[in-house]
Amino acid sequence: MGSRQVTAWHGKNITVAGLGVSGISAARALAGLGAVVTVVDGGDSEGHRARAAELDAAGISVRLADAQTLPAGTDLVVTSPGWKPDSPLFAAAAAAGVDVVGDVEIAWLLREVAEDQRAARSGEPRREPAPWLAITGTNGKTTTTQMLASILKAAGLRTAAVGNIGTPIIDVVLGEEQYDVLAVELSSYQLHWAPSVRPHSAAVLNLAPDHLDWHGSMEAYAADKGRIYEGNTVACVYNAADKATEDLVVEADVEEGCRAIGFTLGAPGPSMFGVVDGILVDRAFVENRQKNAQELAEVADVNPPAPHNIANALAAAALARAFGVEPRAVRDGLRDFRPDAHRVSHVDEVGGVTYVNDSKATNTHAAEASLAAFEPVVWIAGGLAKGATFDELVQKAAKRLRGVVLIGADRALIAEALARHAPEVPVVDLERTDTGAMLAAVREAARLAEPGDTVLLAPACASMDMFANYGKRGDAFADAVRELASERA
Fold first, then answer.
1. Domains delineated in the chain
2. With left for phi above 0 and alpha for psi between -120 and 50, is residue 386 left, alpha or beta?
3. How far apart are CA 136 and CA 340, in angstroms?
4. What tens digit of pLDDT does each residue of 67-95 get?
5. What is the value of pTM for the model shown?
């Protein structure tokens, strides 16, 4: 399906799967192009009905409490990111010969139409669509995308961080504001349903087992991540410490002249970004890269300057430099960047103990990176394991651990790994799942911690067993730390 087909959507029956933010965005955009849109969703809550009423007022049909049956006459299915490929709705679509794509695919195909509309509204000459600098990986996607956007803004470019972050990407593509370039975070779900996307440059930050219940295997997960490199025109950025990301570059079908650019926490070779004597350097986009290196920023300019975050900064810098951004803007953008809450976020210091919220560490790979940044650590962990195992994580972190407090549905899996690989580390197993569980966890962690230690929430698990999302879990941790501080004041 190509961009020419966008005009053919007029009058077509398009089914949108999911009544979430991205589904509503896609439904409104497609209806605006003259498609006959039906949204299907398995929910039937008061919130679902309220959103359905808003769409119905806009002439968009909504079918609640049934997400399995394909509406008769459907010509195209547009899915929200979380829907599994083996969903009955998609099986029915495949049987009927109907394509299934995601909202990112729709946004990509709408780029040309959006520029036509802007030119018609403004009376100014038509511009080419804003290029996409795209980022994926098991961990660090959001932080790196935000870092990249900060660097691009420091360079004076009109940009936004979009995709699996912030405003729905369709709304940005069709919006009034015109951009020079977009920093696009793409999840494996989104890439699975986006066969036509061709970024200017892209990065895969890392690969570790995650979402295997959705993808079915590590091979399928990696293949979906690797789609981000397809059709790249300038640079495919990979992690030199993670060979799987380089393998994806080798396998990608890119435009002639596109370069493979690595990043490393050590001294970089030619066509790489790395660190020399506390300085982030570029040996890719310089004259005579066999001998020369361009200084970009100091490690101290990265906030926080933990190893995994320096890697994020190097990837963001590589994408920015691939787009022609000057070195000074890289430094200024990194200095201006402030990480979101719930991502290695300092909460408070109580009794000489530092409390850090990394609720976003929802898998073992992210938790490993977080634990590596602190020592000694009292670790608060647990939740929904999503099929993960914890032996390797515990083996790597064992020497850093002062103690562990376990919460959540799958905490026993972590407890068993600790018993095998760190039997000397004190473990508190909290069976509580009520709203006061996090306060109890923080109090237990405070009891185990000594002055100079860090109490780190890095759950290595998803949050939905106890909390609506990782943000709510992080908020509960921060609230509990503040209550602890009040008690000890």
1. 12-106 (3.40.50.720), 130-336 (3.40.1190.10), 345-488 (3.90.190.20)
2. left
3. 18
4. 999 999 999 999 988 788 989 999 999 99
5. 0.80
